[in-house]
């Protein structure tokens, strides 16, 4: 069977649903296919800062997500070196809170929103191959769970099918042109969370080279994530590695003193960050299929929603003009890279599995003493400020000066501070060069 539509979206989770919503609202006939049936789970840290919640609102999914019952996370808290920093959000499009929503409910809400906008969402349907016409992608071949095959022909195929993207592999874009290996493993489980005093707080702790978080979510649970150095998860025993990491994070253990673990531990050792070529003749890769950042800064869902939506809006009027479609896809891809490159580099820095540096300790001290600075730092996570606007070279030099006064000439600390300043300058130079 052959069917003709305006666009096919492969993958109906965050990026795919957002693209389908934008295309359907523009009056295009769009079909989204996914091998899963919803609700279904997927490996994800699923925290949204205020900027990410604003993206849910932009595609019309926020009322459905709020109906799932996640607490509004109005306070962000970071603790390290015995110093605690607390901040509230600068509102983003009127939204002053974050959310942590399990993917079973979140993704079902997104697919329902896509259907309401007019898109068809076909579950339990796998893409087996791409269709080509004179060097252009011209659709997909699918197979449902009953074994029925179908051809969906369209001028645009959106590959929103994740890190192991079938579409990226088929168009030859699977190999990144920019990547950064991870240094941290990622392990999480859900816990029953009776402590109502902390249900509005998204919290992070650092101790030694370990990092851990507690994000209250729907159904009275809290998602507890730890990110130890990746070598501590090489024995294939994630439950043991998880418990050991919790024991190395006394602040997080204290947060869980009245909680009981509700689920098994889920884990991954591979959180390599990358950019892939994300547009070509009749195809595009929003979401993790085209660009991925280490989950330490929790930017994945926000970016999937935003650049899925912007993709649909950018190409809706050009679908049946191949030359203009390709130009629109390339403009969209370049915009994403411009907007994400600095955050990508900043995230790679935070993803290093290292003990807190003297500059980081001074940053915590400065933010704990200055509420405005703390809020500006939170704005970076919410994506309303760039890292370079807040963590300026001048500010880093001031922090370095404060750290030097504190250590009083210790040679090892002096070397550490000098190395970190060099790394910061090198990253700024690299970003400038890449931008050009």
TrEMBL record:
Pfam families: FAD_binding_3. InterPro entries: FAD-bd, FAD/NAD-bd_sf, Geranylgeranyl_reductase. Gene3D superfamilies: FAD/NAD(P)-binding domain. Residues 5-336 form the FAD-binding domain. It comes from the Bacteria. One of its GO terms (molecular function) is FAD binding. PANTHER family: CONDITIONED MEDIUM FACTOR RECEPTOR 1, GERANYLGERANYL DIPHOSPHATE REDUCTASE. This is Flavin-dependent dehydrogenase.
């Amino acid at each position: 069977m052959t069917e003709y539509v305006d666009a096919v979206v492969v993958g109906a989770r965050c990026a795919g649903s957002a693209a389908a919503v934008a295309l359907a609202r523009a009056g295009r006939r769009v079909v989204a296919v996914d091998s899963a049936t919803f609700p279904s789970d997927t490996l994800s840290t699923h925290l949204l800062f205020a900027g990410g919640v604003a993206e849910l609102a932009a595609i019309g999914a926020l009322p459905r997500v709020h109906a799932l019952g996640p607490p509004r996370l109005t306070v962000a808290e970071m603790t390290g070196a015995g110093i605690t920093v607390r901040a509230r959000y600068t509102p983003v499009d009127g939204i002053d809170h974050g959310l942590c929503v399990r993917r079973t409910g979140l993704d079902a809400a997104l697919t329902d929103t896509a259907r309401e906008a007019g898109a068809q969402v076909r579950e339990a349907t796998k893409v087996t191959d791409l269709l080509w016409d004179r060097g252009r992608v011209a659709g997909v071949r699918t197979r449902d769970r009953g074994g029925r095959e179908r051809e969906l022909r369209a001028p645009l195929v959106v590959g929103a099918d994740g890190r192991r993207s079938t579409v990226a592999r088929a168009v030859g874009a699977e190999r990144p042109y920019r990547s950064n290996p991870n240094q941290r493993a990622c392990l999480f489980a859900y816990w029953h969370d009776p402590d109502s005093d902390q249900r509005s707080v998204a919290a992070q702790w650092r101790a030694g080279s370990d990092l851990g978080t507690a994000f209250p979510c729907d159904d009275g649970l809290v998602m507890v994530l730890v990110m130890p150095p990746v070598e501590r998860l090489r024995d294939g025993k994630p439950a043991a590695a998880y418990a050991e990491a919790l024991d190395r994070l006394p602040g997080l253990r204290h947060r869980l003193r009245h909680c009981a673990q509700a689920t098994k531990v889920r884990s991954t050792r591979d959180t390599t960050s990358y950019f892939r070529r994300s547009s070509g003749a009749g195809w595009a890769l929003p979401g993790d299929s085209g660009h991925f950042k280490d989950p330490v800064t929790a930017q994945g869902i926000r970016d999937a929603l935003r650049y899925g939506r912007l993709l649909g809006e950018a190409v809706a009027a050009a679908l049946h003009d191949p030359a203009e479609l390709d130009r629109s896809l390339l403009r969209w891809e370049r915009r994403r890279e411009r907007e994400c490159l600095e955050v990508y580099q900043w995230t790679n820095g935070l993803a290093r599995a290292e003990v807190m540096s003297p500059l980081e300790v001074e940053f915590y001290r400065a933010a704990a003493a200055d509420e405005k600075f703390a809020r500006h730092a939170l704005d970076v996570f919410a994506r309303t400020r760039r890292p370079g606007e807040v963590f300026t070279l001048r500010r880093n030099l001031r922090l370095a000066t404060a750290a030097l006064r504190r250590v009083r000439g210790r040679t090892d600390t002096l070397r550490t501070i000098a190395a970190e300043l060099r790394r910061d300058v090198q990253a700024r130079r690299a970003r400038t060069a890449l931008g050009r």
